[in-house]
Amino acid sequence: MKAIYVQNVDYNVPRIHDLLKIAKKANLDIDENTSKKLQYITLFNIETRYVDYKLDFKKKCTKKYTQENIAKILEIKKWLLKQLKN
Asked: What is the pTM of this model?
């Protein structure tokens, strides 16, 4: 995402972890579905960063939950790779 920001905007990448904000600042055309995925994936950063949230996050990380979210992340990765210009 930040590579796309550099490609589209500037080398001074925002020092944030909010994927949707970065995508918007990078001038990406984002549909509602992708927007929701980016917001959801960003929550993982919060849930795994702070001790208070880690245990709850660990409890919900079943095999099914993990597989579903890895699939979402891979979709986003594929979309992002298409955005990069060679």
From this structure: 0.82
